[in-house]
Amino acid sequence: MDRCTQPRKATPSRLPLPQFEVVDWSAHLPASHYLTRLLMQLGELGLSKGDHHGLGLIDAHRGPLLDLLDWRDDLGGMPLDNLIDWENLNFETLRARRLRARRGERVLPRIELKAEINRRGNLSVRWYPHGFFDGAWAAGQGHLYRPRTQDGAGRLYQADFLEFWGDDNPKGHDRPSNELLYIQGVAALRLYGGDDQGGPGYECGNFKRLLIFALRACFNSLVAKLRASYEVGLLNDFQFEFADPDPAKLSEARVLTTWRLVSLGGRQAQGDHGL
Predict the structure, then answer these.
(1) Closest CA to 132 of 154, 107, 108, 157
(2) CB-hemisphere CA count at 13 Å for 227?
(3) Among 6, 25, 242, 245, which is most exposed with the fewest C-beta within 10 angstroms?
(4) Which is it for the CA torsion 263, 265, 268, 273, positive or negative?
(5) For the sheet containing 137-139, what is the strand order?
(6) Which residues contact 203 (CB under 8 A, 6 or more apart)?
(7) What is the residue extent of each domain of the chain?
(8) Is the pLDDT of residue 195 over 50?
(9) Model confidence over 266-275: pLDDT tens digits?
(10) What's the Rg (C-alpha) of the chain?
(11) E-assigned strands of the chain?
(12) In 10 A of CB 101, how many CB atoms?
């Protein structure tokens, strides 16, 4: 539980943030849409870039906001370089798959995305080769894995990659070499009944909802970009629950009440996902 749900004495030297506008979720809008809406509302107080401390944003909100602003809708860095390394593709398998494919069917390297909130409350999204969680990859030295000829159930397995390096534990501020998205502090964005009644100098509920929508939009953007070049299976996805619009507030937007990351037991393959 973050400090939004705990009483806090008013600080006369700080201006309260305005009541945040209720915004509805759309899977077709980018993260920049929600972040822009949030920053424009913060800007009503004359917020200057980098002045988050002056407005009294609690750490539980400042961390995710700054991480999302850094990430935006971009995708790059070493994890992507490792993924698109053409020398690591198994072209023999890809050619064999093309020969078996139906006419007009795209044959792309297969990967799977795993999204989880770790023990520290941070969101981590990592890529793995298809079959990794079915026992089709054998651990070698360090964090290097190589494909087997059969998966854990004894089924014939043909890998699209020659090897895989991931889930390593780098030192300092570096992240694992297969991690494509990392946002700190998302566990603190859980919604509580007292959020809309204010807290640390500003109303928390819709502030957190905007961050949550931006978070999911970043994830959706990542999946969409990867699906242009890869066959992507999802091991997890976001799940939202909404309340009907409040007629008293003259708003047609649904109100997000609960969000969570859920496991997709059947592993959602190429196609639409999310709400």
Answers:
(1) 157
(2) 16
(3) 6
(4) negative
(5) 137-139, 144-147, 164-165
(6) 17, 19, 20, 195, 196, 197
(7) 30-100+109-268
(8) yes
(9) 566 554 454 4
(10) 22
(11) 110-117, 123-129, 137-139, 144-147, 164-165, 179-183, 231-243, 255-268
(12) 11
